Amino acid sequence: MIVQSVASLIIGLVIGYLGQKSRTCFVGGYRDFFIFRNTHLLKAVIGVLMGALIGFNVFRLVGGFVPNYPLVYNTPRVESKMLWILTLLSGLGFGFFSVLADGCPFRKCVESGEGKLDALMYVLGLFLGAVYFYLFVNEIITFLIRLI
Amino acid sequence: MRISVSPFLTGLVIGFLGALAQAFLGIAPPEAYGVCMIGHTKDLIGWIDGDFILKTPPSIETPLLTTVGVIVGAFISSLMSKEFKTRCSGKGEMFSHLVYGFLAMNLGLILGGCALSTILKVAYGHLLAIMGIVGVIVGAFLGVEYLKRS
To answer: Which of A41, A124, B58, B79 is buried most deeply by CB count within 10 Å?
Structure first.
């Protein structure tokens, strides 16, 4: 449906606007804490947690689509041990390279809107990465998950 | 026009809109998928490609324009506060950012989302996302240590 496209565009506009004003970065929060013990950006992480918890609980009561809400007891695909290992390793790599790139994907998209050409190259890298993943990596990952 | 917005407020709005997107706007099939810079970019690429070469699993039929929205939103915001300025820190830096983006997409697709949507998933109670966010935090720590030493 066209609703999802329009909704995601409007949500993107709003959070892009706010993200540019506040310089929010979700890896930057951890980075600043480890370097300077500065919790200014880390508050954004707390904010997302609180906003999402309030949102999911309120919308579930109002009758929105929030299936199996506390997903702790029925998370899909937890039985695969390999998926746990892959999640941890990819998380490690994601955090590491986001610190090297000086921002999470959200921050980089905001910076490319501000006119930073490096960040625009990062977004291009995201597009190329998606193409590469589905051409070559996806089958390997599916195979590994079936393994153990 | 200068308005100051705190990161906490931004986070609160992102979390709330992410929940709203799933609950009432139909951006759903994976749980807590309301806002995700990795997943929505992947869906946009998959939609452009159609069924041509990539064979991406279509989680949602129509393209999700969050990435476009964020870039345009930040563009509008920086124009309004007169902060928009085309700048670039050299060819080597541009190439390394291309590689970082490439790696972020591949690792993010295995992780199941970006740093932002992993937090949304933790709020949803997703066990693997809790593992993932531990990985991201430890990875950020390792990155900081690496930068200190180089």
So the answer is: A41
